[in-house]
Fold this sequence. Notes:
Blueprint: E1 21-24, E2 30-37, E3 42-47, E4 50-56, E5 65-70, E6 75-76, H1 80-87, E7 100-111, E8 114-123, E9 126-140, E10 143-153, E11 166-176
Antiparallel strand pairs: 1-4, 2-3, 2-11, 3-6, 4-5, 5-7, 7-8, 8-9, 9-10, 10-11
Amino acid sequence: ALGSIPSPAAAAAPDLADAAGNYGITPASRIHFTVAQAGGGGIVGDFAKFSGNFRIDRNDVGHSTVEFTLYPESVKTGEKRIEDFLKSSAVFDTANFSTVTFHSTTVKQTGPDTAAVEGTLTARGMSRKERFSVALLDWNRGSIAFNIRGNIHRSPYGMDVGTPIYSNVVEFDMNIK
């Protein structure tokens, strides 16, 4: 008979405080998004170019910070027509706005390995407070991985073209390494 083999899921995730330090986001990360469409389908894609860093404060996770920049010119959907539309003045207006940025204002630990991050998202020259849920996936000295999820409404950024056929909500699901 086989001995008891613990499942990988049973392994405890590291505590956020244990993973304290400064980290730069690597190209191995994945910035994925979905915009649902009435009746099914929608737009699904990734951003190929992004940068950023975060710092986890050892003494107080609440003093941690996140800085993130994505470059909408790098949007990939698998369809050039949709990519060109997303880059156009109707959506990202990449000719006039080359970046979308996020700067955290508060980090609140919600569990041993989870947090809620609030901050200022700026797109098309418009800024507003947004919130993301963060889960620590993996950590070993010098390397860390998070899953970050958040729903952003397009209309406050002047990107509500196509509503209500296309949802006003962009669902982000990011694996950050």
